[in-house]
Amino acid sequence: MYDYLVVGAGLYGAVFAQQAKEKGKSVLVIDKRSHIAGNVYTEEVEGINVHKYGAHIFHTNLKEVWEYVNRFIEFNRFTNSPVANYKGELYSLPFNMYTFNKMWGVVTPQEAQEKIAQQRKEAGITEPKNLEEQAISLVGTDIYEKLIKGYTQKQWGRPCNELPAFIIKRLPVRLTFDNNYFNALYQGIPIGGYTKWVENMLDGIEVRLNEDYLEKKSEYDAMAKTVVYTGPIDAYFDYKLGVLEYRSVRFDTEVLDIPNFQGNAAVNYTDSETPWTRIIEHKWFEFGTQPKTVISREYSSEWKLGDEPYYPVNNEKNTSLYQQYAKLAQKESNVIFGGRLGEYKYYDMDQVIASALEKCNQIL
Ligand code: FAD
């Protein structure tokens, strides 16, 4: 009899298991995948750590989370500064003075501000009715047309004038030459890859892979006093109230026999003709010097049950369905629901770690 059965060896499960073990509890971790680390999993290809489920950059303002993660691995100094490629024109992201200089030839912050104000005025939109009008009213026509329109359309699979305005609440405009994407105190990539990091967290803890909890639920329930479930909450209840929806991403990964394909970890394709949204060149997360390179083209795609769930669709329908499942979850005795799938919530890595640490503080 274990004190805890942790379902899912992703970050939530790994943090919970690590903390439980540290407090002297017995823990078994299972995962239905053939590997640990959940969606942050990296696998080595040609000596390069490839982010199998999408590019992951660790960033946080939470000092306690930063100190916690550094107990298990060292982080490098990687700073996320993506580049936008619009039909061969390259722009710095997030929108900053480099972007404005390239777009309009302006040199000072005041000139950039005037240009944006002038374009917003010309558009004359007072009450934006859709995402297109919202974006133009925030940053003007040029930035919308070249850097927002095509990318957003590909991400959502619909034209921007058919998307609701609320998706874009604000668009950060930096009047400095700072192209660090995240406004975070701490940022980096675990040296040696995310899998190594999670492996270090799970050191000394029993882990069983290729084990689907829901297929052997009663057998597993009998093995532990408490279950920590980090899989999809609707799957736990056999979808009896309906299926929670996600947006999915497809990755097309290629090894290239050249040392450098694009000179940056992330390049966003912001035109609407290029079918992929981004290309990730994995070696640059760790300043690789390998003779080959590995790239992944990312395609945003519709999701159906059975596909890998990536981004929860937090519209009214799904939010209300989740709340009904959450009520059922509260009635389950000796089961803790956690993580991005268990709580149907987009969590950054630091947030999922903070949430697991908080849960542990409450109960352990
Ligand atoms: P998961 O990692 O999904 O772990 C859940 C685990 O449970 C999985 O391994 C799954 O196989 C297992 N499981 C499910 N059902 C069962 C079952 N029935 N039986 C056994 N096992 C089961 N965050 C950042 O901070 N920075 C980023 O740059 C970033 N990039 C991202 C890019 C993408 C494309 C996406 C989708 C997310 C990104 N995130 C990023 C968020 C990050 O991926 C999550 O915060 C993190 O993975 C959540 O961990 P988790 O443990 O909740 O979920």
Characterize the structure shown.
The chain is of the alpha/beta class and 364 residues long. The chain folds into 2 domains: 2-80 and 185-245 and 312-363, Rossmann fold; 83-167, no CATH class. It is 33% helix and 20% strand. The chain contains 12 helices and 16 strands. The strands form 4 sheets. It has a 7-stranded mixed beta sheet with strand order 7-6-12-13-14-11-15. The longest helix has 16 residues, at 141-156. The radius of gyration is 22 Å and the shape is globular. It binds flavin-adenine dinucleotide. Flavin-adenine dinucleotide (FAD) is lined by residues 7-13, 30-33, 38-40, 54-58, 212-214, 230-231, 249, 310-311, 339-341, 347-350, 352. Flavin-adenine dinucleotide is lined by residues 7-13, 30-33, 38-40, 54-58, 212-214, 230-231, 249, 310-311, 339-341, 347-350, 352.
- Tell me the major beta sheet: 7 strands, mixed
* Tally of individual domains: 2
Number of helices: 12
What ligand molecules are bound, each kind once? Answer: flavin-adenine dinucleotide
Strand order of the largest sheet: 7-6-12-13-14-11-15
At the fold tier of CATH, the topology name of the largest domain is Rossmann fold
Number of strands: 16
Radius of gyration using CA atoms only:
22 Å
User: What is the highest CATH level, the class of the largest domain?
Assistant: Alpha Beta
Spell out the CATH superfamily of the largest domain. NAD(P)-binding Rossmann-like Domain
Share in helix: 25-40%
SSE string, helices as H and strands as E: EHEEEEHEEHHHHEHEHEHEEEEEHEHH
Tell me the β content. Answer: 15-25%
What are the low-pLDDT stretches, counting only 5+ consecutive residues below 50? none
